[in-house]
Write a structure and sequence with these properties.
The protein is α/β, with parallel strands linked by helices and 1004 residues long. The chain contains 37 helices and 23 strands. Helix content is 43%, strand content 15%. Strands 18-17-19-20-21 form a five-stranded parallel β-sheet, sandwiched between helices. Strand 7 and strand 8 form a beta hairpin. The longest helix has 31 residues. The protein is flat, with a radius of gyration of 41 Å.
Length: 1004
């Protein structure tokens, strides 16, 4: 509700008090929209006509705009109320149109005279309604007319006329601009249809449309725009009648014959129009039958002028309502009988691809209520045929619901079977908007082509496709001349010799230290002084070794932690130099042997062997076929470790988040712009969507050179994803589309979120909120995390013992001396990474791990490529897998513990939805595939709950939900374990996403 300023309000009260003679305590005023409401009260109810007479005379001499705020729009109406003090409802109310004060005064004077003569019949001048004045097209009158409805909502109105030039080089036309201002932001659906109805009811001439602009008081930018079609109802009826619409023809003929007191009933059989003329009103059955000559004289010119499409003739009958036989009949030919172009029905024209005919049929389909279309303008349809795709835009004053129109249009287009149309794309928007609110797509034919069609007579076979895609044999091969038995014997002998050698070496070392003796020797104590000397010697050596280790680690950290100036210089100017320094890892190995790795020499890819990179040896149950997958890319492990170690950002206590963020920042620094597509989620996204395969598949669909990055994080929940998108990455670092690949587990609000709990205690988490005080303050921190942190701090302070105090003081003293103590977390991280690298370079051991299905998160950490993707070649074999792992049913799975979609994960997801909508980022959630082994009855029930939850949210703008959970439940070759895809499954998912017509891929 809009109110005037206190000083202005006081001025209005004083003005009313002076004009009416009523004490200021008995006067109250209020401004709502363009209306001024004045309440006059006293111990006795003020006399109506006397009060109005005094007030109207004052209004003649006063400009109310001077008494109101400068920001308040003009006042069009004044409502005056009178009541006795203490009563709830006014005794009388009178509306005053400020543009007709003289007529109001005449009416009041007549009423006063009538009162003096004890008459209750007021006379005087006739008050002209705002509607009658608005029909003349005057902008101020239109504003007054609209304010009658909108002022009750606290919305003020101003109307202007502006010229605009259409794009098709037509002469300039008048356009009606309606500016609505309020102290709040009214929803467009609240005002759209009422304004459209009132404007169309005026039947204005000279205006094609009107634009409604809603703006909040004090703001410069409009809140929303709305277009109202002002095409007169008669023109709409004639347009539909021209296409042969029966209801429209009946309406037009009824209007013509209504003056003759003749009613009309119309029906269509084949290509003949049957028109029945009956008395318009005949309750007693005594009205005469309509005259034949009069009816034909009125109907024939109308039908010839309309020339309905596809209707060849008309038969006209004259009879009474209820009669079985007509009194007279006449037949006449219509223009379609003489002009072949008019003889084709709209449906036949639409089958040939005629866009005008399709527009009519679709608009008729979507507007079954003719009265509602004439009242509001209805749903308008626009069609564009481009590259075999039929794009259909539906707009209306209120955006049509996708469920309301998409299925109807799709079914209709499928029935047409238009030649050359291979897909349909349907959009919905509010009239006046350029961008659609939602979109929907269906492919009528398969559009994916993995290989070009060299010969039209032959289709691409599966064998041909497998020959063209990268196969498994392109991975490193060991030796083709060894058999399985020879390898097993060799490994057994080496392992036996290694154990014996290691045991002997360790035994000799321990004996030489004189801290251990042989087990068969006597254990009698030796009390000579030699033991003390040995202890002193070893103690001194240990201290020297500690100091030397501390110095060496300090030097390594200093060497690998550059200053900001050096960090900026490490990125080369050219992309080729950068690629060499950031991807090969050769320069790092030359700098220090601490980060050395083994050779990566590959054998010829086409050699057949019992060995490959995905399995140690091929067994009988190994799949013989080669699955399609994108070529393996160079690993980014060493680069990720170095970048994370050199990063100025503090750690988030989630190692993979630190490394993925470092790789992402490196990508931003190299390209200068964010990637076109960002994949995010848990390990199911990390392993399940291949950026290289997705980019290649999108190129075949007409989206070339799209940059894709996988930001998957093991264990990431909705809270983790929300934190990364809204707080870790800047809005300028985000792409225009985010693919969130995950499943129900990430949205379980009933289980403990270990990943986010660890993240929330990190220094990086707190700094992320401190960096952006304008977008995230302390209130953005999860309450449970903040509160639990404060409680934990208080408890720790209370439970500190003397031992802990001494230990803390010693640690501080050592920290002041040590050169590496301050960087202990960084040293720990580097050592862990290098140990993982060392383990990964042991080819036989790593391959055996993958074969046995014992890959865990540590292996996942070291295999990420420069696109952030983790390509695993292992194929899920239930027999071998469950020999190494327990089969956990759903009711004992901690990921589904106390499963519920409501709670902290749902809150985080809602935040992501609001953020992406505000940033105009398309968010696509992909429910990733699962195996049949994993989907037991318990998990299926939880998945169904999650499906219903996602489908409810799928109505949000800029959010799309795609379900692939049941895509390949029996194809174990696409999975690395029961719930994670391997790189072959990731390749198939990437192709499927690229071919999905629902996903709005960006265009460069």
């Amino acid at each position: 509700m809009k109110t005037v300023l206190p000083d202005r309000q006081q001025s209005l009260v004083q003005w009313v008090s002076q004009a009416t003679g009523i004490n200021t305590f008995g006067v109250k005023v209020r401004l709502r929209g363009n209306d001024l409401h004045i309440l006059c009260e006293g111990t006795e109810c003020p006399q109506r006509w006397r009060t109005l007479s005094d007030l109207l005379q004052a209004l003649q001499q006063t400009n109310l705009d001077i008494l109101t705020s400068s920001e308040q729009t003009s006042i069009y109406q004044v409502f005056v109320y009178g009541r006795r003090k203490g009563e709830q409802r006014p005794s009388w109310c009178h509306r005053v149109h400020l543009n007709q004060i003289d007529k109001h005064l005449d009416q009041v004077q007549q009423a006063l005279l009538a009162d003096s003569e004890k008459s209750k019949q007021p006379g005087g001048a006739l008050i002209v309604s705002n509607e009658s004045l608005a029909r003349q097209g005057n902008p101020e009158a239109i504003a007054r007319y609209l304010s009658e409805t909108l002022s009750t909502l606290g919305v003020s109105v101003q109307v202007k006329i502006k010229l605009y030039k259409p794009k098709n080089s037509q002469p300039e036309e008048n356009r009606l601009w309606i500016f609505c201002q309020s102290s709040y932001s009214p929803d467009a659906s609240l005002l759209a249809e009422p304004i459209a109805q009132k404007l169309r009811y005026l039947k204005l001439s000279g205006y094609q449309d009107a634009v409604i602009v809603s703006q909040v008081s004090g703001e410069t930018a409009p809140d929303w725009l709305l277009r109202v079609d002002l095409t007169p109802p008669e023109m709409m009826l004639k347009e539909w009648a021209r296409w042969g619409d029966i209801q429209a023809i009946a309406r037009l003929l009824t209007e013509v014959l209504s003056g003759l007191k003749v009613g009309v009933q119309v029906s269509l059989k084949e290509s003949t129009l049957h028109i029945f003329c009956i008395p318009a009103f005949d309750p007693l059955g005594t009205a005469p039958i309509p005259d034949k000559a009069v009816c034909l004289e009125a109907i024939l010119p109308q039908l010839e002028a309309i020339a309905p499409q596809g209707i060849l003739a008309a038969t006209i009958y004259g009879q009474k309502a209820g009669d079985k036989e007509p009194t007279w009949i006449d037949w006449l030919a219509l223009p379609a009988a003489n002009y072949p172009a008019f003889a084709i029905s709209p449906l036949d024209l639409a089958n040939t691809g005629d866009e005008s005919a399709m527009v009519f049929l679709l608009e008729r389909l979507l507007n079954p209520d003719l009265d509602w279309r004439l009242l509001t303008g209805g749903i308008r349809v626009l069609i564009l045929n481009k590259n075999g795709l039929l794009h259909i835009m539906c707009d209306a004053p209120v955006c049509p619901q996708r469920q309301q129109v998409a299925s109807k249009i799709t079914q209709f287009i499928c029935q047409l079977k238009i030649s050359g149309i291979i897909g349909v794309r349907i959009y919905g928007r509010r009239a006046g908007n350029k961008e659609p609110f939602w979109h929907y797509g269906v492919d009528l034919e398969h559009r994916q082509r993995l290989v070009p069609e060299a010969t039209p007579e032959f289709a691409a076979t599966s064998i041909y496709i497998n020959d063209l895609v990268t196969s498994e044999t392109s991975e490193p091969i060991l030796r083709p001349d060894l058999t399985t038995e020879e390898v097993q014997n060799f490994v057994t002998e080496v392992a036996r010799d290694w154990i014996a050698t290691a045991s002997s070496t360790a035994r000799k070392f321990l004996l030489k230290s004189q801290l251990f003796t042989e087990s068969n020797e006597s254990a009698e104590p030796n009390h000579n002084v030699q033991g003390i000397k040995i202890a002193l010697v070893w103690g001194t050596l240990g201290l020297l070794l500690t100091l030397q280790t501390d110095w060496v680690l300090g030097r390594i950290i200093a060497f690998n932690t550059p200053t900001p100036k050096v960090a900026s210089a490490t990125l080369p100017s050219s992309s080729s130099e950068q690629k060499a320094s950031l991807t090969s890892g050769k320069n790092q190995t030359e700098k220090t042997t601490f980060f050395s790795s083994t050779s990566k020499t590959k054998s010829p890819p086409n050699q057949s062997s019992v060995f490959n990179a995905s399995e140690f040896t091929q067994s009988d149950d190994t799949p013989k076929n080669n699955l399609a997958a994108a070529p393996l890319k160079e690993k980014a492990t060493a680069t990720a470790i170095l970048l994370a170690a050199r990063s100025q950002m503090p750690s988030f206590n989630v190692r993979q988040l630190d490394e993925q963020l470092a790789l992402y920042k490196q990508r931003l620094a190299r390209t200068g712009t964010p990637p076109d597509v960002l994949i995010i989620g848990s390990s199911r996204a990390l392993r399940g969507v291949d950026p290289a395969a997705l980019s290649k598949a999108l190129a075949t669909q007409g989206y070339p050179n799209l940059d894709v990055f996988n930001f998957g994080i093991n264990g990431a929940t909705a809270q983790v994803v929300d934190f990364v998108i809204r707080h870790v990455l800047e809005p300028s670092e985000l792409p225009k589309i985010i693919i969130w690949a995950d499943g129900a587990r990430a949205f379980n609000g009933g289980r403990e979120d270990i990943t986010f709990k660890s993240l929330a205690t990190s220094v990086g988490y707190k700094q992320a909120f401190q960096k952006t005080p304008t977008t995230a303050n302390s209130n953005d921190l999860p309450e449970n995390t903040v509160n639990s942190g404060e409680e934990k701090t208080n408890e720790e302070k209370q439970e500190i013992s003397t031992y802990e105090a001494v230990n803390q003081s010693l640690n501080q003293a050592l920290a002041s001396v040590s050169t590496s103590y301050q960087n202990r977390d960084q040293i720990k991280s580097l050592l862990q990474k290098q140990l993982l690298l060392f383990g990964n370079n042991q080819t036989v051991r790593s391959q055996k791990q993958l074969t046995d299905g014992t890959s865990d998160e540590s292996i996942s950490q070291q295999a990420v490529d420069f696109d952030g993707f983790l390509p695993l070649s292992i194929r899920f074999n239930p027999t071998r897998y469950y020999q190494k792992h327990s089969r956990v049913p759903g009711n004992y799975d901690n990921d589904y513990k106390s499963f519920q979609v409501e709670g902290q994960q749902d809150t985080a997801f809602q935040e992501v939805l609001q953020f992406t909508q505000s940033q105009k980022i398309s968010l696509v959630f992909v429910n990733m595939p699962l195996t049949a082994d994993y989907l037991d009855p318990v998990r299926k029930q939880y998945e169904q709950q999650f499906q219903q939850y996602m489908l409810r949210l799928a109505t949000n703008p800029n959010f799309i939900y795609r379900d692939l959970s049941q895509q390949w439940p029996k194809v174990n070759d696409f999975f690395s374990d029961p719930s994670h895809l391997n790189r072959f499954g990731a390749y198939e998912v990437s192709k499927k996403l690229a071919n999905d017509p629902m996903i709005p891929w960006p265009v460069k």
